[in-house]
Amino acid sequence: MTDFRDLCERMIQRDLVRRGINDPRLLRAFVAVPRELFVSPELKSRAYDDRPLPIAAGQTISQPFIVARMIELAGLSEHDHVLEVGAGSGYAAAIMAQLARSVVAIERHGELAAQAQDRVQRLRLRNLRIVHGDGTRGWPPDAPYDAILCAAAGLAVPPAWWEQLAPGGQIVMPLGPAGGEQVLTVLTTSGQQELDPVRFVPLIDGPAD
């Protein structure tokens, strides 16, 4: 039987700590969320590889380091209310739910949203909600948000996100064209900081189904 706890601890040391992710709260969050529950049964043995893995609807679950890096840049506190655009499997949102007061994660694929919400219920994450909709419009019913994180690349921040961002809040997303040079960027009303080169799927408006 696979020892997922051991695989998780190895991943944390090998792929997070050695690459500069040292926030104890963030590392504990990775221990608390079983990544093997967020991948298909045939890929469970690879759940803790530091690489993207395929999930339903032709999408992927991001590699653990990228998930950690984006959350680290958001600097989430226990008082924060967070919006994630592009929930996918729900894994990154589940990590954030360990750190923030509350998290809303929006997903354009109905199949993925339903699967992610089922995982949320199984893990009893009462401060996390998965919703189905157009992420480029944010999620107005629960705004404002102290942080908005996006797991897809765009050329600019959608205007709706700025409208839904709380004073002093920040947006973390990859900026750049689909298939081209993209940069993980932290944006606030006072400016932006361009950081790591990355490769993400494009941000698409409108729900997929």
Molecular structure report:
The chain is an alpha/beta fold and 209 residues long. The protein has one domain (4-198): Vaccinia Virus protein VP39 (Rossmann fold, 3-Layer(aba) Sandwich). Helix content is 28%, strand content 25%. It has six helices and nine strands; from the N terminus they run ααββαβαβαββαβββ. It has helices at 4-16, 24-32, 64-74, 91-97, 110-122, 159-164; strands at residues 53-54, 60-61, 81-85, 102-107, 128-132, 145-150, 165-175, 182-188, 191-198. The strands form two sheets. A seven-stranded mixed sheet has the order 5-4-3-6-7-8-9. A two-stranded antiparallel sheet has the order 1-2. Strand 3 (81-85), helix 4 and strand 4 form a beta-alpha-beta unit. The termini are far apart. The mean pLDDT is 95.
Strands side by side in the biggest sheet: 5-4-3-6-7-8-9
Classification by helices and strands: alpha/beta
Average pLDDT, rounded to a whole number, is: 95
CATH-derived topology: Rossmann fold
The tally of domains stands at: 1
- Biggest pleated sheet: 7 strands, mixed
Helicity, in percent?
A: 25-40%
Q: List low-confidence stretches.
A: none
Q: What best-fitting shape do the alpha-carbon axes yield?
A: globular
Number of strands: 9
CATH architecture field? 3-Layer(aba) Sandwich
Number of distinct helices: 6
Q: Please give the CATH class.
A: Alpha Beta
In CATH, what is the homologous superfamily? Vaccinia Virus protein VP39
Radius of gyration: 16 Å
Helix and strand pattern: HHEEHEHEHEEHEEE
Gap between N and C termini:
38 Å
How much of the residues is beta strand, in percent?
15-25%
EC number: 2.1.1.77
Protein name: Protein-L-isoaspartate O-methyltransferase
Organism: Sphingomonas arvum
Family: Belongs to the methyltransferase superfamily. L-isoaspartyl/D-aspartyl protein methyltransferase family.
